[in-house]
Design goal:
Protein name: Bacterial repeat domain-containing protein
Pfam families: Flg_new_2
Structural class: mainly beta
Number of strands: 38
Strand order of the largest sheet: 13-11-18-15-16
Keywords: Signal
Largest sheet: 5 strands, mixed
Shape: rod-shaped
Radius of gyration: 53 Å
Number of domains: 4
InterPro entries: Bacterial_rp_domain (IPR044060)
Length: 609
């Protein structure tokens, strides 16, 4: 074979091999098919992510191990195991927008492991087309907080938040102040409260808190309660149906505009059995609002300084109910639980009205009221003093003083007198005055009260004083009327009713007690059974007549009541001349009438409240 033929054959073989390689190169050894739902064409924001998936299939009879050429911002997974003929795998591409440097067009390329020249990518239309976009700006809202005077708010600077956010603001008031109002964009959204929460914020806002003065004002600074000392009960002190022990309420009002916070109540020194039975004064008390504390007394009275129940005739020490709130606010209510014999407001308690201020037996406001008798005589039984005075004094002896008495008919104070039918009547008085004095009658019917003469010593005493403060009568039992009276007042120290018009133990509203205030019915005085009186309810004060020292012969040991004492009740039998008196002797009650010039003792009484 010549050289030319050999060369032609070689060229022909090379050309055939070249043509065969070209045909094989047009058929991918592994192919890519996009998986539905994970397309290769996608837009990703710089803060977003995306996932793209392909099914990769080996079209070659040869097993291949594939590796993807790196693309910044795209993390591949899957298709790393050997892939046999017609075997498929899932190539997952996780796209991170923040890691991309720009758009990604083309790829991915999978290469034979160790052979970077044998690489394939998806066909046209299935290659990557990732478009990197900027995210829309995030909407943000500004909330501006502020606080009025006398307090502060936290946070106190502008707050920038995303839509739907929640902010909580806390207000702190200065001492003596509390939160008044929370204003959102100038409109009231909450009254009081130390916190305000703004939720689901979708607009700019202002939040403002205002403060107001806070007060804790009690309905009473002193509360007096009666012991529960009913007849046949276990109470060891003097029992009486009037001692019902009704619960009593203290109302606390915040008259300020701010809210009192952390309101709480404590008590100290209350006697055994007395409790705070209910209390609404807790937490927050808004401006203008009130809360109620209820005290329920037991059978034991308040103790004295020696820890003895005051029913033993001593001065009680107040228990205290203390109400506090944030900011140093603190008020105290003094509470006394009282029974017969307790010293209170200048005297010994002998009568109690536990129905005062009650709409029911469980709803009473304010204190009990009642009556006390003075701790000491205003005039001793010996030598004694006359019932009424003509303006002179000092001529008595032997138990009577006819020279200094004024025998006058005082209207409306007989034991038979009532508010609807006073006795003596004003007409009776007019006749008496015209026949007894030369003076013009300066009085009218309205000058005198219509008294319950056997029970209302205060009313009786007012009528007695009305007459003797107007005149010094110059009356004389040795003379013959009419007499000429001179302008009063008659010296109060000269007669029984006048003695009770003076200031005693710091109080100015004393009066000469009526006969039924002094003891139980005797001798047709008309006292109703069960009427609270000194003889029955203060047995420890009643001494023994005839004892070596009557003034110390009672259980209390001093200032005892013994012998005859004037009452303010006139006798309906010859009222110008006679009046009722009480005889005190332990275990021996006696009431009677006698002439007004008898020299008897005086012990004044007053109503407490």
């Amino acid at each position: 074979m010549d050289k030319n033929n050999l060369r032609n054959k070689i060229l022909t073989g090379i050309t055939g091999l070249a043509l065969m390689g070209s045909a094989q190169a047009g058929i991918p050894v592994w192919t890519f098919a996009p998986i539905a739902g994970y397309p290769p064409t996608v837009s990703v924001t710089t803060t977003g992510k995306a996932t793209i998936k392909y099914t990769v299939t080996n079209q070659s009879h040869k097993t291949h191990i594939l590796r993807m050429k790196p693309i910044q911002g795209i993390t591949p997974s899957g298709c790393t195991s050997p892939l046999g003929f017609h075997e498929a795998c899932t190539l997952t591409l996780s796209v991170t927008g923040s890691a991309l440097t720009g758009d990604v067009i083309g790829g991915p390329e999978l290469c034979e492991q160790g052979n970077s020249s044998l690489c394939y990518q998806p066909g046209q239309g299935n290659t990557l087309a990732i478009h990197l976009t900027q995210p829309p700006p995030v909407q943000r809202y500004t909330v501006i907080p502020s606080a009025g005077s006398n307090g502060r708010i936290s946070p106190n600077s502008s707050q920038v938040v995303t839509p739907g956010a929640t902010l909580t603001f806390t207000a702190t008031a200065n001492a003596g102040y509390g939160v008044h109002q929370w204003l959102l964009d100038g409109k009231l959204v909450q009254t009081g409260g130390t916190t305000y929460q703004l939720t689901n914020i979708i607009a700019n806002h202002t939040v403002r808190v205002t403060f107001g003065a806070v007060t804790l004002t009690p309905s009473a600074t002193t509360l007096a309660l009666a012991t529960n000392c009913q007849p046949a009960s276990s109470c060891t002190a003097t029992q009486n149906a009037a001692l019902t022990g009704n619960p009593r309420q203290i109302t606390i009002t915040n008259w300020g505009s701010g809210s009192a916070t952390n309101v709480s109540v404590t008590s100290t020194g209350l006697p055994s059995g007395t409790t705070i039975s209910s209390n609404t004064c807790t937490g927050t008390l808004n401006g203008g609002s009130s809360c109620i504390i209820t005290l329920t007394p037991g059978s034991v009275a308040s103790s004295d300084a020696g820890n003895n129940a005051c029913t033993s005739g001593t001065q009680p020490v107040a228990g205290t109910v203390t109400i506090t709130a944030t900011g140093g606010l603190s008020i105290r209510v003094n509470a006394y639980v009282l029974g017969y014999g307790c010293q209170y407001q200048g005297g010994y308690i002998f009568a109690v009205d536990d129905t005062q201020g009650c709409t029911s037996s469980t709803s009473c406001t304010g204190s009990i009221v009642g009556k006390v008798v003075s701790l000491t005589d205003q005039y001793p039984v010996t030598p004694g003093i006359i019932w009424s005075s003509n303006g002179d004094t000092g001529h008595g002896g032997g138990g009577f003083d006819a020279a200094d008495v004024s025998e006058d008919l005082i209207p409306g104070v007989n034991e038979t007198s009532t508010p609807s039918n006073p006795s003596p009547s004003y007409s009776d008085f007019q006749t008496f005055f015209q026949n007894t004095y030369t003076n013009m009658n300066p009085f009218s019917a309205s000058s005198f009260r219509a008294c319950q003469g056997n029970l209302d010593g205060q009313c009786n005493t007012d009528n007695i004083l009305t007459f003797y403060n107007t005149f010094i009568t110059n009356y004389s039992t040795a003379g013959t009327p009419p007499f000429t009276a001179t302008p009063g007042p008659t010296p109060p120290a000269y007669y029984s009713g006048g003695l009770c018009s003076q200031t005693i133990n710091g109080y100015m509203d004393w009066y000469l007690p009526a006969i039924c205030e002094m003891g139980p019915e005797f001798g047709s005085s008309g006292c109703v059974a069960g009427t609270q009186n000194i003889f029955d309810n203060l047995p420890a004060l009643v001494g023994v007549v005839g004892s070596p020292d009557p003034g110390t012969s009672c259980s209390l040991g001093a200032n005892c009541l013994t012998g005859f004492y004037h009452s303010s009740t006139q006798s309906s039998a010859a009222p110008a001349f006679n009046a009722w008196s009480q005889y005190y002797n332990f275990g021996n009650n006696f009431q009677g009438t006698g002439v007004k010039y008898y020299l008897y003792g005086v012990r004044c009484t007053r109503a407490f409240q």
